[in-house]
Amino acid sequence: MEHFLSMKNISEHEILRLIKEADAIKENGVSPIHKQLFAGNLFFEPSTRTKMSFTIAQRKLGIDPLDFAGETSSLQKGESIYDTAKTFEAIGASMLVIRHNQENIANQIAAHVSIPVINAGDGKGEHPTQCLLDLLTIYQEFNKFTGLKIAIAGDIKHSRVARSNALALQTLGAEVYLTSPPDWQDNQLDYPYITIDEAVETCDIVMLLRIQHERHEGGVAYGKQHYLSAYGLTKAREQRMKRHAIILHPAPVNRGVEIADELVECSRSRIFKQMENGVYARMAVMKRLLTDRGIIDENHFNQRE
Ligand code: CP
Is there a contact between 20 and 181 (Cβ–Cβ < 8 Å)? Predict the structure, then answer.
């Protein structure tokens, strides 16, 4: 693996290898790298989970995170994102983690730097490390993907999480369904649409999506109460879910909108477990990139903490 930009061209074998790697790191830990390496964390869009879990994952691996704040950087003097990335490479970063509101920006930068690039969310494009932590959470629960029925529910049109997950889950043999208000459907995603009521009654996993307020030009068309009762996970719907079914949400959660407030921490919810898994999923991705690129010897990691 040269970069980690998308779930599009990753084989079933490679995805499963990353999931199992993340699971093993969570279980056994990993020996930190004894070589000075820096990671440039270039977040041009707000983030709590992704940015902080990359920082923790890097520290656990023995990598020094280089924090970056656009508002105090030379972006303010007109420097481009491309030149910012090239600067991090020039001063010694061994990898770049990029979040930006522009689709494909990480791919464009990856084509012009010699270090690995990780897409930490690009506009409505993809969010592959979120996808990997979602897959790890599903794997820990069900130990398989084939035959699982998964509904991805909500703001499909503006969601990079929906795109990455639908692609990867299909590759892994799961049955993917989408559910959303009619005007938030995305016809470029070729999966069957069902209602939220069908989703809760038939699926093993209900993956709710945050309403992406920042990507709705002219504001969100639905009131909070109306959205929850028409398209969200209410307490009444949760009670109709299959006995073993679980709830996922990438967070941040709009409590009382996509999901009833009291369900965020209910026994079916794996929302905070997803966040915990984010650290290990990101460690697995960075470990693989460093070893595949020959920056760190694979044998180094065989020794446990
Ligand atoms: N799920 C996710 O990407 O959260 P942040 O925006 O807080 O990183």
Answer: no
